[in-house]
Each structure stands twice: as C-alpha cells, then as structure tokens.
C-alpha cells in the first residue's frame, strides 16, 4: 500500500498566490497567470523562494524560457480570482486578459493588485518526481495591504478572519 500523501497534506494549511510569467513570440508578449500554494521562502541571504509546478505545465515552459516571474500573495477576498486562475491555460486566458495588473518594474511579469508581491529571476531548477521546483532570486518586493490571507486547507479555500498583520 502506498502512502496517502495527498490525503495527509490536505491537513496542512497553505497560503494562496498567483504566479505570472510571459512568453515573447513574433514580437508579441503573451502573459500567463496560475494559482499556486507551493510558494516557499528558501533563504534570506540571498533572498530566494521556490515554486513547484507540474513538469508538463505550459506555464513552467514559459517561466523557464523567460527566467522571470512575479508572485502575488492573495488576500482572503480573492477566492474568485484564485478559482479562475486554477484552471487549464485555455480556460484561464480570459481571466488573465482581464487582470488588474501592471508589468513589474524589474521583470516585466504582471504584478496583481494584491496584498503583497515579489518579482523573481531564475536561480536554479530541479526535476523532482512529476514536478519541477524553480528557485528564484527575489529582485523586488512590495507590501500593499494588511488583510487576512486566503488559505487552502482540506481541499478548499478559506478566509482566516482572525489573522492580522498589523503590529499591536
């Protein structure tokens, strides 16, 4: 009997973010965005974070080509956006086109109107099982809001109404 990793990890609450990248083809830039809960802080010096993406992801292919991406950490009221961007690339294209976002000043990847964000450049990548872990050097950060975060737990999105990020 193999271990039930998915079932076990359903009990581990994670934050929810949107990662963005792009592809330049024939003089046109096509942005893409995807909902993730695999963002991890790796190192403070140098500032490094990681994301894990399915190895056959078109988003991953674009990210590895540009070597640039942005991450927007979502507030609790962003569940509808998180759901829209958790779909297949074709299904989320309309939502990506309608994003309230601007190209990041360092990477050009879209920065959403979110509670906090960061821009990354590729530091390294590793194929691990059915995923690829990308390690990014954080080249820009921003904190825009102090709302409770959107969480993912037991296979569902949750708002953590009691969390505050303001100092008492």
TrEMBL record:
Origin species: Streptomyces fimbriatus
Domain spans labelled Flavin reductase like: 9-159
Matches recorded under SMART domains: Flavin_Reduct
Keyword annotations: Oxidoreductase
EC number of this enzyme: 1.-.-.-
Gene3D superfamilies per record: Electron Transport, Fmn-binding Protein, Chain A (2.30.110.10)
Gene Ontology terms, MF aspect: oxidoreductase activity
Protein name from the UniProt record: Flavin reductase family protein
Signal peptide: none
Pfam families assigned: Flavin_Reduct
SUPFAM superfamilies in alphabetical order: FMN-binding split barrel (SSF50475)
Top EC class of this enzyme: oxidoreductase
């Amino acid at each position: 009997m193999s271990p039930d990793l998915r079932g076990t990890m359903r009990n581990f609450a994670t934050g929810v973010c949107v990662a963005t990248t792009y592809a330049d083809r024939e003089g046109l830039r096509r942005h893409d965005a995807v909902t993730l809960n695999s963002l991890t802080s790796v190192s403070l010096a140098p500032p490094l974070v990681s994301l894990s993406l399915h190895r056959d992801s078109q988003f991953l292919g674009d990210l590895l080509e540009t070597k640039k991406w942005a991450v927007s950490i979502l507030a609790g009221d962003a569940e509808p956006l998180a759901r829209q961007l958790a779909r297949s690339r074709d299904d989320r294209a309309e939502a990506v086109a309608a994003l309230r976002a601007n190209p990041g000043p360092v990477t050009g990847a879209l920065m959403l109107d979110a509670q906090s964000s960061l821009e990354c450049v590729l530091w390294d990548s590793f194929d691990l099982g059915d995923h690829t872990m990308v390690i990014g050097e954080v080249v820009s950060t921003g904190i825009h809001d102090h709302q409770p975060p959107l969480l993912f737990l037991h296979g569902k999105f949750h708002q953590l109404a009691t969390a505050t990020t303001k100092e008492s």
